[in-house]
Amino acid sequence: MEIFLPIILLFILFLINIPIAFSLIASALVYFLFINTSLPVSLVMQRFISSASSFPLLAIPFFIMVGSIMNYAGISRSLLAFADSIIGHKTGGLAHVNVLLSSLMGGISGSANADAAMQSKILAPEMTKRGYGLSFTAAVTAASSAISPVIPPGINLIIFALLANVSVHSMFIAGYVPAFLMAIALMFAISIISHKRGYKPSRSEPASAKERWGYFLKAIPALLIPFGIILGMRFGLFTPTEAGAIAVLLCAIIGVFVYKELKLNHVALILKETIQGTSAVMFIIIGAMVFGYYMTLERIPHEVASALIQLTDNKLVLLLLINALLLVVGMFIEGGAAMIILTPLLLPAVLNLGINPVHFGVIVIVNIMIGGVTPPFGSMMFTVCSILKVRMVDFVREVAPLLVALIAVLLLLTFSEGLVMFLPNLLKG
């Protein structure tokens, strides 16, 4: 029974709000210092260091820097104007713009929390000014930000690819269809709510073709960044890690020479935000790797896989059980940490039943993004509610129908491997 003590301790530390990285490291150290004393402490310390010594992990700071540069380079405002020209004339126009902007930004920022914070500052004030309820504005902003990490180059796509030993390129390509479905589902739910409440469009009439074309031309440099990354990787011009560096360079060039909003005094702010973001993510990854080392030594992933297979040998039933588990865990544990902890546990059972790991990865990432919007510990929920000063009770009431829409998409993706794998298979062709 003592081998499960680190897991029990981990959840206790989570519940008393100890930071995720410290919880993982403390739980792992309890095992190596007091339970399994056969390993030298120096070997455990080497494990901490070697966990970060991975070339693919260099992609993480690069893509975090991309999101930071984008906020200072005027890219977000250009995309906002383009999104408004496309759908701002619909009932509930600015709420639809909120979703569309998250979809356009996702391929550039790659971070749900960054997207939620940015839209809370840029778009949310305008929505409340136009008569949208503050709690509804917060709900739409948080729910739409769940789309961002599903679109390449989302950080979670990279992390899952590393954990599951699958192609980063395949994970990137597989994200487009799920993200599109999430956007459509949210817009459908928003449309119903907006008609009932009489939310007005942001434009009195649709933008003219000439106006849309003008906004599109201005947004082209920003829109080309994710497609350039995907095409470069597809044709072997650079690796995912090198793609992050290319994306940083492209964003900087666009910010300086195209939009002319990126200034020298922004460099220190960008570096500070990149270091803070990278430190938080890497600290969690290192803690999770060492915690995973403990689980591997005790064969816990093998035992969990065996238990799941004994419950069912049906692929769809197994995926539904995993979805239920992830949705519950996502209510209490930050999504990225949940993915890092649970993927090594669940993957053996998934592979044993012949489930495509890329399909499974998309299901996991969509699931944890939904968890980021749900109480009591959803990270996007906290981000939006703290910036907009919205009570959690009011937020939960407004976000409920949007969560139903996202869960419907999750179930569709679970039952339709062909839908998720359509683009990756097409490009493998």
Automatic annotation (TrEMBL):
Query: From what superkingdom does this record's organism come?
Result: Bacteria
Keywords of the record: Cell inner membrane, Cell membrane, Membrane, Transmembrane, Transmembrane helix, Transport
Q: Which parts pass through the membrane?
A: 7-34, 54-73, 171-194, 215-237, 243-262, 274-296, 316-333, 361-388, 400-423
Tell me the ranges covered by the TRAP C4-dicarboxylate transport system permease DctM subunit domain, including all copies: 7-417
Pfam families per UniProt: DctM (PF06808)
Identify the main location.
membrane
Give the membrane topology.
Multi-pass membrane protein
Please indicate if the UniProt record lists Cell membrane as a keyword. Answer: yes
Instruction: Identify the InterPro entries for this entry.
Output: DctM, TRAP_DctM
Cell compartment(s), UniProt: Cell inner membrane
Quaternary form?
Answer: The complex comprises the extracytoplasmic solute receptor protein and the two transmembrane proteins.
Which family does the entry's similarity section mention?
Answer: Belongs to the TRAP transporter large permease family.
Function in brief: Part of the tripartite ATP-independent periplasmic (TRAP) transport system.
Q: NCBIfam families given for it?
A: dctM
Q: What is this protein called?
A: TRAP transporter large permease protein
